[in-house]
Protein 1
Amino acid sequence: MPRTCNVVVLLSGTGSNLQALLDSSQAPGNPAQISAVVSNRADAYGLQRAEAAGVPTAVLSHTDYDGRDAFDAALISAIDGYSPDLVVLAGFMRILTPGFVRHYQGRLLNIHPSLLPQYKGLHTHRRVLEAGDAEHGCTVHFVTEELDGGPLVVQAVVPVDSGDTPDTLAHRVHAQEHQIYPLAVRWFAEGRLTLAGSGQVHLDGQPLPATGHVIRH
Ligand code: GRF
């Protein structure tokens, strides 16, 4: 029986990725267990999902702190109170300070709704359609100080259909997020996924390509 991997999830909104992680943590033999959910917004629906699953929650409003450094210091102390092995950003709509990122180096994951390194930032679905791209997708990556810029772990690629709108595309990509985030978290929890000091991601001891592991649909 592998040892439990304590996961703290940070979110600001709906928390459908949190739900996927909660569901997958029930799978037989999955060592990833969500030990707490932390939000910067008291009205985030993800908090209700956590409570329904019996997972402790904490709310830290950035508006109560004088600047990013003070907020991130309080955030670190709240998170570390749960002794996490892994911290997962699941729609946490805050830019994190370099000090925060360094503190969780190699144990901080994010998911982004694009095929990184393309389309960092917001409104990815609309931007993909405006560019006329044939493919879109989502990416799980280790977090570094560059926004949406860390080493890639896994990508899911979906086709863009001629009739797609930003909403239909978002829906298709979101469904893939709910597959690849639990997959990456489980890999980490099982000790299969690591980030070397050089920035190289390894899966099962083998270096992953710069794209991470790619799943095509
Ligand atoms: C997802 O699209 C994720 O890629 C981005 O934030 C969104 C969170 O969605 N980082 P949800 O709250 O998990 O539904």
Protein 2
Amino acid sequence: MSYQTEYDHSMKDPAGFWRKQAEALEWFKFPEQILSLDKDGLGYWFADGEMNTAYMALDHHVKAGRGNQLALIYDSPVTNFKSHYTYTELTDMVARTAGMLANLGVVKGDRVIIYMPMIPESVIAMLAVARLGAIHSVVFGGFAPPELAVRIDDAKPKVIMTASCGIEVKRVVEYKPLVDHAIELAQHKPQSCIVYQRPQAAATLVAGRDHDWKSLLAKAKAVGCTPVKGSDPLYILYTSGTTGKPKGVLRENGGHAVALKYSMKAIYNVEPGDMYWACSDVGWVVGHSYIVYGPLLHGCTTIVYEGKPVMTPDAGALWRVCAEYGVKALFTAPTAFRAVKKEDPQAELMKKYDLSKLQVIYSAGERLDPPTQAWLTEQSGKPVVDHWWQTETGWAITANMQGVEPMPIKPGSSTVPVPGFNVRILDENGQQVPAGTQGYIALKLPLPPSCLNHVWGDENKFRESYLTFLPGHYTSGDGGYIDEDGYVFVMGRVDDVINVAGHRLSTGEIEEVIATHPAVAECAVIARDDDLKGQVPMGLVVLKSGMTIAETDVQQQLIARIRESIGAITCYKDTVVLARLPKTRSGKTLRKTLANIVNGKEYMVPSTIDDPGVIPEIIEVLRTKKLVK
Ligand code: COA
Ligand code: AMP
């Protein structure tokens, strides 16, 4: 089938198109309501279907004769350990882990926070929560206690599941003190905390609240799957918005399962039984969709990799794993490829491995820059496919659909809209712009299955954040253009969100932390282009008058504060002290102008600027520090 036929079908008859995709899954009761629209044109999918996502991802395959096939491989170069689970073993383990949670009173609709490293127990925990019809909220292990506390207060979990530690290349990160601190900071107190003790660090348990995972599991009995409706929530995943407070994206069971199952063949061209590897972390949406749910819903084998693309032990790590397990589809972020390219420019380490089973390399998380794409294509001899998506959608909005019709690759483009997504480039008045003209990337409603319909605990937030600016459309927050061949080019965020090593961060949130420093009067955080991480944050700060503190001291203190408040993944290093910030007459800081100056790009000084003299003043400071030419 051609891409165009598939896409046109999804646009002309969305309900028919997605009903057909839904038939690929085993429902307890097949939905009658495929698509229901509300007054704003927002789509709700499979609302009355009865199902359980963990059942579809595990029990179904055992019943269908896939029980002895590997479901999950754990490969941990940081601990020198490998293990695996067949579908039967994983199903049993998930059923007992669900029993362990049920013994602590977890029932349908309860929230469970999972703050874990990349070990199989993280995946097991997610599926166990899903098995009970409860709602998981995985918090990336690199977030600091205050970030975890915000999520505890918002999601109000009955239970927190954690491990004694995570392992970074050069250090063991003890998780339990971080969890204890977060619970101390939070208003909401979870009833229980389950701790998976790892040999690299022993966690101290708080009597009455904390439980040892393995002892609790030993006493637990396997439980069955609780039926849920297609519209019932599967998980909450927090993501950075333009304000300091993260948004809890709510994912519904039905649409999510259908979209991910469809994507495995249509986008990634894998079959049940194939080896699929998303080198990411379960704390991010890529990890949710393509380490856990997508591959398992499709009957593939997934890989839980506890390591980095470089340093564990070298820049051949990606290729070693692909060769060792016969990976057919590899998916990671451009920053990982850039790190490999930096360490091994001639790809000598790649050549050591047999990559004959690897068919296509997929990239997302940030725009795949053309030089990295060219290097990887040349070195690997494989198609290198960029695809664009967001936490909010849970799967790709634009892609080069390898299982439908592979299309010519255009460097810098994530190719064409995925069936179901009506992608438009609009100006600020909501008018479509001509081909090749940049604008706001918007998605015409209704959105296809899996996309968010709610922000957890704040019904207005969803509509305000995404639906108000361009009526009738979902505003993606990204800007870009569509060329005359219909290829979409996503050029970057048009809001105050930045992307550091494929991780989405809010400049507003970093600014809030900087503002707590006693010497700081005001600040602006901007994204500085970075060869490895894509972008890194930079703080431009104005000190309170009379402050004599040295710039290097402010810098060190801000680094420490941001690591403690948000986490090391912020990669915050640079602080520049300025006499004043450029502002409009209404007091809005000109962050975009500042970012363009710092990144050596053409910049505009708006006519509304309060005092144009501030710009040359700032350029001079940056020049003295050799931050601009
Ligand atoms: N727990 C605790 N700390 C963590 C962590 C975790 N789960 N993950 C990262 N960190 C820390 C790191 O130790 C590092 O701390 P440091 O400043 O003290 O060294 C900091 O956060 C930054 O981490 P990272 O961005 O991973 O940088 P790095 O220099 O260690 O590695 C790359 C660079 C390119 C190898 C790495 O960014 C990478 O693998 N990126 C892939 C991106 C990815 O998976 N994105 C997900 C979306 S698809
Ligand atoms: P997250 O929700 O963390 O997955 O981040 C989503 C954001 O990452 C998007 O809004 C984009 O800004 C950026 N992004 C992800 N994938 C791509 C891509 N392939 N091309 C360009 N930007 C991307």
Protein 3
Amino acid sequence: MSLVAEFHCLSDHDPDALAVDQARAFIRSQLAPLQTRERVALRSALGRVLAGDVIAPFAVPAHDNSAMDGYALRRADLSQVAGTCLRVVGTTWAGKAFAGTVAAGECVRIMTGALLPPDCDTVVMQEVVAVDGDEIIVPPGQRPGQNVRRAGEDLAAGKPALAGGRLIGPAELGLIASLGVAEVSVFRRLRVAFFSTGDELCSIGTPLGDGEVYDSNRYTIFAMLTRMGCEVLDLGVVGDRPALLEEAFRQAAAAADVVITSGGVSVGEADFVRDLMATLGEVLFWKIAMKPGRPMAFGRIRGAGEGAPGAWLFGLPGNPVAVMVAFLQFVRDALYLLMGADPVPGVPLLPAVSAVALKKSPGRTEYQRGVLADGRVRPAGAQGSGILRSMSDANCLIVLEHGRGNIAVGDPVSVQLFDGLL
Ligand code: AMP
Ligand code: MG
């Protein structure tokens, strides 16, 4: 079934204003992960997606060891009602096995991470122990087996330590390193081409003409893609002229898996951008019931020749804040899916309380730039969809759901934190 036919089956109400969730679900339903893999050195895997399970070649930790600096002892020696007097027969450090034996009534001074001497099973922390020459008094109330990290308690040998599809962040990098694994198999980077459309746009480095504005969308898009670990291809500013646009679309689709454009998708102006997208592929134009970011195009640009794969297309609106919001709500999700991330890392919706009253019309999802502090959120400043300053001042989006009306002071609201995203 074609994209358009499928879409019409799915959209059972007003196609003029598609709900955010519906658009997101439709986009997801069309996409499948790229499958090409490559092996990379561990550090180069940061931000990439694992193409297969990483199996633990041995248990982690490999041996029982101490979680504390203290004394290793035998649980049978501990009195639960009175202090226990034990003789210290040696010291053991991390990285070296204890050579001696520990008999009843004896203990060993032990450092964090040191292997437990064979006869010992419990560690008492040094702070609670009274030392008297080569003897210690252990107070009652110690739990047998305490302060010991058990062999295999973190990872079992032969079991997946990380599943394929996992996005590799700092914790994953460390975890893989703890297994002694130096190289991993990851999916290849997603190639994303982008350009801005609009006769009024000027690239930085060029003096502004009358009525021109500097192109900022290519910078926010570059930044968001780079953060996601994509390979980016910046095709510059393309004027509102069909021949130029057609050439840019062809070049982008030939070079990339995904093409992102901004501007020219609103109704009534620069209509040929829309027409052109439709000519070059199968593209849906949506009015999404959201603010900011209402117009958007999604679909595929056909490849130039027989067997050429073509590319997915996201035609974002032109307004700078709308670009960022639409990217976060739709494009990010789609790109992670194409990158092979499983599960696709969503942007969590966190509960907060509105510190101010907010105007909201039911029937669309509104995203306000907000500042969240101590569970309370307030708007970050003027909310015009061209105002990047308040995007920069914000640390979250306040998500006012589709059905909601005005928000009163103290009402619960959801927020999406920018941390690590923007
Ligand atoms: P459009 O969607 O093309 O009608 O653009 C909507 C608004 O966004 C207009 O005010 C444009 O000048 C502005 N705009 C479009 N593209 C960009 C861009 N790349 N950088 C900054 N502003 C833009
Ligand atoms: Mg325009």
